[in-house]
Amino acid sequence: MRVEHYNRLLGMMASRRSVLKGAAGAASLAALASSGALGTASSAFAADMSADELALRKQILQIPGVGKGQPGDAEWQKVGEMVLGPTKANVKQGEFAGVELTFMGLNNQGQHNFLYRGFLKPWETYTGATTKWIDLAQADYNARLQQAVATGTVDFDVIEMGAPFEGDVCGKGLTSEMPDWVKTQLDMDDIVAYLQPPVGTWNGKQYRVTVDGDTHNFNYRTDVFADADLAKAWDSYSDDKKGLTKWGVPTTWQQVQAVTKFLKGQKFQGNDVYGYLDAPKPWGGFGFYFLGSRATAYAKYPGDKAFLFDEDMKPLVNNPAWVRAIQDVLDALPFEPADQINADPNTTGFSQFLAGTGSMIPWWGDIGSNAKTSDSSVIGDTVGFSILPGSDDVYNRKTGKWETLSSGPNFAPNCAYLGWGVYVMARVDGDAKKQKAAWSAAAHLGGKDLALWTAAYPSGFQVYRNSQHNIDEWVSAGYDKDFITSYLDSQFNSYNHPNAAVEPRIPGIFQYYSAAEDILANTFAGKMKAQEGADAIAAAWDKLTDQLGRDSQIKLYRAALGMT
Amino acid sequence: MANTAAAAHFVGQFDSIPPQRRLAGRLLIALGSIGFVLIVLLQAFDAAGIVRIGFTNWRPTLYAYGGWAVLLCVGLVLARGQRGWRALFILPAALFTIAVAIFPTIFGLSIAFTDWNLASLSGQKFNGIDNLVQAFHDPFYINALLNMVYYVCAVLVEYAIAFCLALLLNADIRGRKFWRVTFLLPFMLSPVAVSWMVGKSMLETRFGPIPRLVRWLGVQTPSFFGDPIWAKLWIEAMNAWVSIPFVMILLLAGLQALPKEVQEAARVDGASAWQSFWQVTFPLMLPVSVTAIIIRTIFQLKLADIVITVTAGGPGGATDTVSSFIYRVYSDRSNVGYGTMLAMIYLVIIIVFVTLVLNFVGRRMQRMT
Amino acid sequence: MTTTAASLPRVESRVAARTRWLGNKLLIYAALIFWAIVSLFPVYWTITTSFKTARDVQLGHLLPWIDYQPSWIGWKSLGLSPDTIGTSSPTRDEFLLRFTNSVIVGFAASALAVVLGSLAAYGLSRFHYKLLWMRNHDIRFFFLSQLILPPVVLALPFLVLYKELALLDTHFGLVMLYTLTVLPIVVWIMKDQFDTIPMELDEAAQVDGLGPWGTFSWVVLPIALPGMVASFILSLILCWNEYFFSALLTSTAAKTLPVLVASQTSSQGINWWTMAAVSTAAIAPLAIVGVILERYIVKGLTAGAVK
After folding, report:
1. SS3 A478
2. What is chain B's mean pLDDT, rounded?
3. Tens digit of pLDDT for each residue in C113-140?
4. With contact defined as beta carbons under 8 Å apart, do A454 and A115 qualify?
5. Is the whole-model pTM more than 0.80?
6. Contacts of B252 in chain C (CB under 8 A)
7. Which candidate in A376, A382, A420 is best for mutational testing of the C interface (most C CBs within 10 A)?
8. C102 near C256, Cβ under 8 Å?
9. Would you tell me which of A174, B83, B193, C74 could form a disulfide with C279, CB atoms 3.0–4.6 Å apart?
10. Which residues in chain B have Cβ-Cβ distances shorter than 8 Å to C150?
11. Quick check: A561 and A305 in contact, CB under 8 A?
């Protein structure tokens, strides 16, 4: 139906990409100057799109329409049909007849793979290929993948995988290199800067079709921080307010700590109110990101990419910056709800914050996308977003001193996990038809217009393209302007922050996190002092680096950070 | 016990078997064995690349094993008559178990003595007893082992409750079917569901029904998993909730099997309910009890799901179990060499422990009967 | 005077006995009701949660229609609510495929385990064996030892084994493994059961000219049936809820239900309602089997034991 639109669009693509390149450059410049300027930069993308494309995108966003209930299979198929244009430009009808692909991915809450089933159905009808699905629970995912790789039981052609695992999979030559026609179809330059290569590549080869972006942002309760009674109490609060003279949202970790202490024992709308929520309970390695979010502002010095390890893979986790973050958790825990020691990020995010307990948490974008849909949260509209808090002083690991920057507090958003991607396995490479089919499917799922829809509706995927920062599109789809501006800015300003902390993609990174979680759990339970715990983590990490092969780890680490 | 003598009596029987039949039986077994070995060798040579036959997988070996097992059984019956028939009772289960378990056991042992992290590019490296040494210096492992002492002791409490429930269900009550199925229900819920529905939802400190009940009883800020001792108790409570029905059903079947005359005789003697239970029912129930406790203990020693989901071993390792720790090492950290060694050490400890318990109980029971 | 004095204590004792009997009954029923609540409340919680929206879950609402308005949310997400039952739904297809696989694998493995296990248990109960160095006691322990290793460390061995045997993602492979894991339980339970059946029965049958297999099938088996049913139910439940190997060894064709429960939670939150609906749907067949087979656990056994 819309083939002609797309053919026309494809013709225009070359010229548009050059414009985009310029705009992306401008965007990062703008981010350097001031993080708030990004909104204007992004509208350049909207202006760049043709009227036809904008109309199509608008139409896509109307399925089923924000506030019209959760979309299901019918909607997924409809959207998949509408974004089929780029595929039709590259693939003839029925070209993949007889090809059967096996797709391994997550089946989190009936999302991920289930959406993909729907999105791919029109693709299957058009191309003639069929797909079989391997659905995994997120908790099993890492082990299953590692064990499949180790025992040679890779029984899938396409996989949904997070960038941190690229070292384990792409590094072992198991994935297929992206053909150039896919790069063109995907409009790769539209992807936000921090997810550009080296992310998605290994040894200079492009492997990943990005479908998701990830960062920790800062979620807070707008109603709590606008409450008059609390403001009055804050005015008469005698402790050190760390520069937060008027009651409002903290912007530094020092203020977060002060507010958390202050709120203990206060009432809000007749209930106990709490400040920041820590997540001390291990969570399969993912919990370490939450200490990371507290630590990056202390540990990530502007212009220095290293914050987990130094250039020689010596752990930095026991330096004063990280120890201070651990100590912060220890200091804050007594002021958090009872049982907080047993809360993992899942609890803090979905059982506590969205249910109305606590007023500040760091999380991935899922909190924001969940908060709004009325039947999945209690707090509803009363959430605001920003990038993670900063710190008045930052630790410079090279001089070994805490420094106060002339530009003000040091911000360093924690771009945790780098999002999901779709990868094609190398086992299809022997069969040209299957290879093209697999890449076509991956490109369909990584398409630009599909991305707009997956970010706007429950899908498990966040924004990852600059073209998704067009506030007008979201508003016309039914989103509240203030809410969506606050939300999108918190995401994009983290992605594009000049001092963003981007985790290194080295093999076994989750093993480092998991080992650290165990020791941190003991530290938070009071079995060790902060420094002792940090030293124990550093020792465990060193041992792990030795086990994984120190020389190769150092090489890969430096490559991942773009060092030589 | 009573039947040992009788069993010995059975063994004493021999039937005369014609020599030809005996020969045929032995021949059959020999043939089967040769065929099986031949196919295994062929497959091995093929896999090693010495000969080219073109096997795509090891299925032929599986089929050959099956064929050999059948020939073995037939051969035994032919060669040994009655004794062969008797062997036939145990052979299928034994041959089956060996078939499925032997390879993983050998493979597991071969992993246990290597340094193998799946994320390591250099792969598997033999490292002797390094893993063993490391295990005994691993504070997390030692802590988990000590926690298991608590969890195993808790089995006795589960057993006591289960026994009471079994007695209740065995009493003269109306609507037995309802009570029985009701009491069995908790066991049917999957551990994953229990961890979430009970551990996370019902115990949610602010809105969960149990905290609300506790608050109503007067405790202001209930904390279930913040304190090490309470955390241990609550984990075990959830675990007991799931497992008690298992023990209960075994004991109930045992109670139902008890000869009614014995209990009636005790009652006629004027024994009180307590006396008749303690002196008649309980001793008679000992064999079933031992089985129930042993099986339940072994399951308890593998406790992991609930701990992983609800506390991840916290606070500060208070609820950690060996299995959940091994799970973290093996699955989360892909450190399969070390993880397997941890499990092997555990296996040895358990075998020694269970053997000791069985011997002790065996001697006690012999004295009692 | 004397007559009344003699009869009074008798009346009193009858009244006392009557009250004691009543008291006992009351105590028994109180205990039954208490434990029924303990058993049922979490199940009730699970079932009702499948009808709760996130708000109702998080605020811990208890009573439908009073605390909260039940909705089909959990069942809808599975494609099993009244309004979605007629439409196409990939989640329902997925659920039904997994459900069918669970039924096939669970029943096949439990049945196989009960057959193999009962035979072995009868043998162990009645005859003396010597397998290599192992005698009866050791053989029984050999079966039990298969139960001890934490499943997680068998991941790599079984992956390699099943890959080489081309058993990955097959029902057959899963049935083999599940049979192995429940076989020890069946052997131990059934050995106890056979031990309680008097040897005289066997001997009588032998006198009648029945061989060991004839004795087993015609005389012992009918009596031991309740024990077999009990071990079948226990095995079925264990197989039905097995999660680890199912997640490891299956991918598209043989995948089972428990994985679906676990996948309702992730870094995108928790779908309480779907998890509850899957759990509820997963208990239902077990409960039905329990209700149907419950009577066999009890009846025949007593008959046999009294003889």
Report:
1. coil
2. 87
3. 999 999 999 999 999 888 778 888 889 8
4. yes
5. yes
6. 297-298
7. A376
8. yes
9. B193
10. 302, 304, 322-323, 326-327, 343, 346
11. yes
